Amino acid sequence: MALFNFGKKKEEEKKSSCCCGSTCTPENMQAAEKEKNSIGVKILGGGCAKCNQLEAATIDALSELGMDTTIDHVKEYEKIAAYGVMTTPALVVDGKVVSYGKVLKKDEVVKILKEFIG
User: Fold this and answer.
1) How far apart are CA 74 and CA 83, in angstroms?
2) pLDDT tens, 95-104?
3) Closest by alpha carbon to 20, among 65, 80, 69, 66?
């Protein structure tokens, strides 16, 4: 007879909890995977101040390089999770995560974009 049933309770919590609030259905995850492979520049993050700072630095960097690329700001957690990103903000170029977990300055973004563009 067990006085405490910690193991069983933990298992039940794992099955019912989800970091994205249970929105990661197979259909949503499949759509996120398909969108992930699209070409372009994306900012991953929920819309916090740091995410917005990264977006502003990226806009400035694109402007400096003379590129008219649009930036997608991905705020849906299931789409962010499809990239394997657990810490935002993140910068994605042509489907590849090139930075995550910090706000890049404009010059850092310019350097990254030059590497990926050629």
Assistant:
1) 11
2) 899 999 999 9
3) 80
Closest by CA to 85, choosing from 43, 34, 38, 31, is 43
Among 40, 33, 45, CA closest to 83: 33
Q: How far is residue 60's CA from residue 4's CA, in Å, rounded to a whole number?
A: 57
Domains and CATH numbers, the chain: 39-118 (3.40.30.10)
Dihedral sign computed on CA atoms, order 60, 63, 36, 31: positive
Pairing relation of β-strands 41-44 and 90-93?
Answer: antiparallel
Per-residue model confidence as pLDDT tens digits over 53-81 = 999 999 999 999 999 888 999 998 888 98
Q: Specify the pTM.
A: 0.72
